[in-house]
Amino acid sequence: MKAAVLGAGSWATALACVLCDNGHEVTLWARKDDVAREICDDHTNSRYVPGHPLPEEIFATTALKVALKDAQLVVYAVPSRAVRSVAEMASPDIESDVIVAHAVKGFDLPSLDRISVMLGKVHPHHANRICVISGPSHAEEVMEKLPTVLVTASLHHEMARQVQHAFMNPYFRIYTQTDMVGVELGGSLKNIIALAIGIVDGLGFGDNAKAAVMTRGLAEIARLGKRLGAKESTFAGLTGVGDLIATCTSAHSRNLRAGRLIGQGVPSSTVEKRVGMVVEGIPAVDAALALAHQSGVEMPITRALHAVLHDGLDPADAAEQLMERERRHEAEVEGPSYFW
Length: 340
What we know:
This protein is of the alpha/beta class.
């Protein structure tokens, strides 16, 4: 199979390596000439995956038309804020029988669409051939070929099965799903909770508080997901609690690092620059709160984070407000039975 991976960041590079290890012909599309040149000439990507040699067979280019030529699988692996513009540029060169997958954990703003929905609008001829790849995964560990288990979801199981076949190998296991809503929401919303966990850590509140935020955060994710049509069981799986655990506990988590900086007093406007990479949890807060408002869903942790990020609320004051919310029974609010 010939595959085009659109993006040359850490996750895009890792996915390209998996496909190459599986014997596929892989082209990476990069925005920057120096990144593409380094991948082709030196077989490294020192900006995003330093210290990890890349297979010599991976070809990189800044020309979308070249990357997409004869591709049978196209994988979007760029930041959420860039997917629409890249998709609009790529659309004329994607053949009708191509499988379109994405590995993006975020929303299309300002539309609030899930990435698969937006891709279906930009690629109307591929609406039945779109898949999402998600789950607990850090590029650094995939590059080391450490065991990683993910999910690929599509409304049409055959599409998910083909993506599963393309990626699966002894160190990279893939399950299939049909609940695209739950898989995409789980992957996007867990970044918000990881930000909150980082803030808790930065404030020095301890493990009790972190456990509480993870648990109540999962309840928020599941509550919104169910209202938007997801299956509640999805949030008990790899793309729900699994991805939440990985993102809230790993030293590789950029959302966790960003939250920790905010908790330590670094202005949220400068955090992404300090982290050095895109922090998807920050725009996800805005999207989640807007979706919660539209759906009539209560998301107190997300609302508190929004106030910290945009209204200047001190993180310690936000924590105090959450602790002083009205007394509740844990199963009092309507929500999935898995989490109440």
